[in-house]
Amino acid sequence: MYDYAIIGAGIIGTMIAREISRYQTKTIVIERENDVANVQTLANSAIIHSGHNPTPGSLKARLNIEGNRMYDDLEKELDIPLLRTGAFVIAHNQEEEKQLEELCAISRANGMLDYEILDYQTARLSEPNLAKSVTKVMSLPTTKVTYPWEVAFACMENAVKNGVEFRKNTEVTSIRYNDGVYDLAFANGETLKTKNVINAAGVDSDDIAALIEEVSPFTIHGRKGEYFVLDKRVAGFVNHVLYPLPTVSGKGVLLTPQYHGNILIGPNSEYVEDKHHTNISYAGLQYVKKNADALADNIPYNKIIRSFAGIRATADKEDFYIAESKIYPGLFHLGGIDSPGLSAAPAIAKYLLKEVIKIDRLYELNQDFYPHRHKSPEFHTLSESEKERLLRQYPTYGNIICKCELITEKEIVDAINSPLGSNTIKGIKKRTRAGAGLCQGGYCEEKIMKLIAREKQVSPLEIAYDSPESKLFSSETKVKK
What we know:
Among the domains are: 82-145 and 224-309, D-Amino Acid Oxidase, Chain A, domain 2 (2-Layer Sandwich), CATH 3.30.9; 383-462, Arc Repressor Mutant, subunit A, CATH 1.10.10. Helix 1 runs parallel beside helix 5 and helix 10 (409-417) packs across helix 12 (445-456). The strands form five sheets. Strands 1, 2, 9, 10, 11, 12, 19 and 20 form an eight-stranded mixed sheet that branches. Strands 13, 15, 16, 17 and 18 form a five-stranded antiparallel sheet that branches. The longest helix has 20 residues, at 59-78. By secondary structure, the chain is α+β, with helices and mostly antiparallel strands. It is globular, with a radius of gyration of 23 Å. The protein has helices at 11-20, 59-78, 94-109, 120-126, 148-161, 205-210, 282-292, 341-357, 384-393, 409-417, 425-432, 445-456; strands spanning 2-7, 27-30, 47-48, 82-83, 87-91, 116-119, 136-140, 144-146, 165-167, 172-178, 181-186, 191-199, 220-230, 241-243, 254-257, 263-266, 270-272, 304-315, 321-324, 331-335, 400-402, 407-408. It is built from twelve helices and 22 strands.
């Protein structure tokens, strides 16, 4: 019998898992995908927004501001990456400059005090490629950029260290309530019992609610966003996150510096019927280019190394939905956690536990809670003396597997065998960035596959790219006799 079952291991589910591990509970995280952070958390702009845009008085506004501040502590405790870029919201004429003033008023109402309006010449001192059509910008110094996959991994690793269980490839197919206990059934035929259920299933959160609620308290509509990725050789082309003025469709097409040196261009915003539809389109990507050109001049599109699409879980409500079921005690729903969901994630977890569940009244603190997660070293970033020391201890640091990102055999093997390790090509890419560079795995994918097969002592025929069904090979064609 579990005290809490958390459904979903995206950024929200993993943040909740870590926060709940502060208490003496028996908790499990259930994920239908083959990895942590595999849907909404996988494909987004990676921005920790300042809080200039949400409606004053809303949960989005409050939790965005709180969450932005909480990331500074998470950086210290979990060794997560944070790039303090700041941001510029861009205006091109007097009418748009008035909208900047309106955003200033929203920022003040939200309690965000660190912002200012800059003229074009001042803004261009730090952004020399700013579009010449720009007249003024609103500067947001507290905007940051992170690496969402690693944040989710860090939270889940720390939660597991503090006693939380994690189960992947486990799709919930039934939820039944009887006399204070929830019975969960899974597609693989297994079941479990729990006193409480936390529905943090992202784009599928309304479907999870519908498994037990007669009427789901919200409906999720998938909103697709398409992106370009520029090679990290363009690092410095823009230094801030560059926003257009927001619209009812969202924050618009952005230019976003990434922690590892790439620049993201996008997203557009398109509602799709299939909430897992992440195909890119020519029309969508052309829209991204057209709108990005209003932010900066001479964007180096010849340095694009890939394009991708992500899905945002937009609900039929303007605000985040974070509440206990009106019918079933101990069933908690988190719906419509779209932008600024990543920014608000740590505050969402704290709000759910402290103000909705009121967990302090129910469970004692975990006196053995350990708040820290120590990240494995990124070998290529170390000093020469530190590299020499590690090479003497672990010679496989000297075998570079991914030449684009300079990822070594030791780093990949550690990622395979870590407590939250992976046996898939995509899982290793998410953990180490092997395959994330210019060649997009063209030269290193085979080597990574062989390392996984060696470490897991399985045939290469068993290695998958991502899901268990995405096997790289169907059969051997040539066998050395």
